[in-house]
Design a protein that fits this description.
Helix 6 (127-143) packs antiparallel against helix 7. It is built from eleven helices and three strands. It is globular and about 55 Å long. Strand 2 and strand 3 (70-73) form a beta hairpin. The longest helix has 25 residues, at 78-102. The model has no long low-confidence stretch (mean pLDDT 90). It has a three-stranded antiparallel beta sheet. The two termini are 29 Å apart. It is mainly alpha-helical and 232 residues long.
Length: 232
């Protein structure tokens, strides 16, 4: 017999993109249970592409799949946050150093655009849009580094970094933008060492405020959350 056809990438990708967007904007908060039947119907897809999308989100650390039980939006522990910051403090300054040497005018234009978007969002009091713009600036620096291996290493962390920006979007975002402006100036001038040093300080300074915010978050046991679902 011929092998069963694989799920349509377009349906899988559509389900993935929609669920990821809902997680990022906190419409689906940490600990939210995802039931296949209701979610598939809501997204207008069958369960096969939905399951593929869920596996993609699991690989990015956004959801937890419990065998024979179901799925839930992942939570964050203190250790999760510390581990992420430890990696960021080493890899993101390297990206900034390389970006100062290799950035193109298009790269710089994208960084400026992210800063402009952050300024408009701050003036409008739109915390979600501010978080998205700040996360976009970090991605733009990485995109300018000109090192595919570093970009590949950082790719699995990108979703978690974006998500953390949204989960902590009530932090002092105006100060974050001012630091981004200083960082852009160093990258524009080609000061790789200065950019790396500032980037390390910038990331490190965010750890304690993030941990303080995380203390207010509810803790979840994925098995307990998914076990309560009605099997369908």
């Amino acid at each position: 017999m011929p092998p069963a056809p694989s799920p349509s990438p377009s349906l899988r990708d559509r389900a993935y993109a929609e669920l990821k967007s809902r997680i990022m904007d906190l419409h689906l908060p940490p600990g939210h249970r995802i039931t296949e039947r209701e979610t598939a119907a809501e997204l207008g897809v069958s369960r096969v592409p939905l399951r593929e999308a869920l596996r993609m989100l699991e690989a990015e650390g956004l959801i937890v799949l419990v065998p024979r039980q179901g799925a839930m939006v992942a939570g964050w522990s203190r250790e999760d946050i510390v581990h992420l910051f430890e990696v960021r403090e080493e890899l993101e300054p390297l990206a900034a150093r390389l970006a100062a040497a290799k950035r193109s005018e298009d790269d710089l234009s994208l960084m400026r655009r992210c800063l402009d978007e952050a300024a408009r969002a701050l003036d409008a009091g739109d915390d979600s849009a501010t978080a998205a713009a700040n996360a976009g600036f970090h991605r733009a620096v990485l995109g300018a580094c000109g090192n595919p291996l570093l970009q590949e290493m950082m790719a699995p962390l990108d979703a978690r970094v974006q998500w953390l920006f949204h989960l902590t979007r009530h932090r002092d975002t105006r100060e974050q933008r001012e630091e981004h402006v200083r960082l852009l100036g160093l990258i524009e001038r080609g000061d790789g060492e200065g950019a790396a040093a500032l980037y390390r300080e910038h990331v490190a300074a965010g750890l304690e405020p993030t941990l303080a915010i995380a203390e207010t978050w509810e803790r979840f046991d994925p098995v307990d959350v998914t076990r309560t679902r009605t099997r369908r």
